[in-house]
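tool_call: predict_structure(chain=1)
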Amino acid sequence: MKSYLRVLSLTLGLAFVGAVQAQTAAAPGARVETTPAAGAKGEQVVAGGQVPDEATRVAVIEALRRIYGPSGVVDKIEVVNTVSMPANWSANVQRLITPALKDIHRGQFQIEGTQMALSGEVGNEALRQKIVSDMANSLNPTYTIKNSLRVPVSEQITVDQALANRTIEFELGSATLTRKGRDILDEMAPILQKLTNKSVAVIGHTDNAGSRASNLALSQSRAEAVKGYLVGKGIDPMTLTTSGVGPDQPVANNATDEGRSRNRRIEFRVGRT
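tool_result:
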């Protein structure tokens, strides 16, 4: 049985991560990733991974540029001719890359053959249903979509507003919080204390300077440092989890100082205990 272009993943809001993944015996786990980031200057998409030919690469990039603008797409896609895909895959993906994607936050969109799964946060129930309905109507009946979009809990909105797109800073190359970083956490601690029956995932991110392994370790250490500081402010440690994803979920282009600065960040995700 032939393996086809497999996964498209999107994470929006503070980070938007997308991937179109292909698998064959010769190229397991090949993929295209697109990473848009919301900010004061608009959203940016970093597209990377593997596609079977130049025409497909151009089609995906041009579809993204129609949504995010020519300067809003960073192309890191590789062409690997051992990757295969279903008939009309490129055309179908282009139909799915629409402005509606900007309405999905903290989301994932996966395509595996003709099976798709969409998850993440949207502003209201009507929008949740409309996004998937519009996608389904744009494709032929062989494609199916699992709708796991949800309307976010109000506590997540409160936490996001408290962070207010600010960056929790650390000393260079370390997990030591700066005074500015501690000040932001001092503001957030009372808000986090008010959350009831909720857990908070503290997620560390880095830029891509240095090795991936060292950045994964650094991002984990920074997430743990934030947890430790918040516990010192009275937050129940049982309500906080930590993880470090290193450079894997950028929200900006690592080619610039500003982009690298935005990528070095701490993210808070509210869930249910």
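agent: The longest helix spans residues 212-232. Proceeding to next step.
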